[in-house]
Design goal:
By secondary structure, the protein is an all-alpha fold. The chain has 3 helices and no strands. Helices cover 53% and strands 0% of the residues.
């Protein structure tokens, strides 16, 4: 899994704001997919300059989707 401490943007783990939301992917995404999602989040924040609330919403939606996929497959989601 990607090292959340090295990419943490905020400390708000309850809303998923910034990179702190990466914790919601734990157990639902394999290491490769988690790395891809962290890179995508960096791109959103650095290149696209989206709002933290937008990233938080994306993280919530992805967390729910990855949870569904992991439960459906019986294993963490992978790319």
């Amino acid at each position: 899994m990607a090292d959340e401490s090295s990419v943490s943007k905020t400390s708000d783990t309850t809303t998923g704001s910034g990179f702190a939301g990466v914790a919601i992917w734990r157990g639902h995404a394999d290491e490769k997919l988690a790395t891809i999602l962290v890179d995508w989040t960096r791109w959103l924040l650095d290149e696209r300059r989206v709002a933290d609330h937008t990233v938080a919403a994306y993280h919530r939606d992805l967390g729910q989707f990855l949870s569904f996929i992991a439960n459906h497959k019986g294993a963490p989601a992978s790319p």
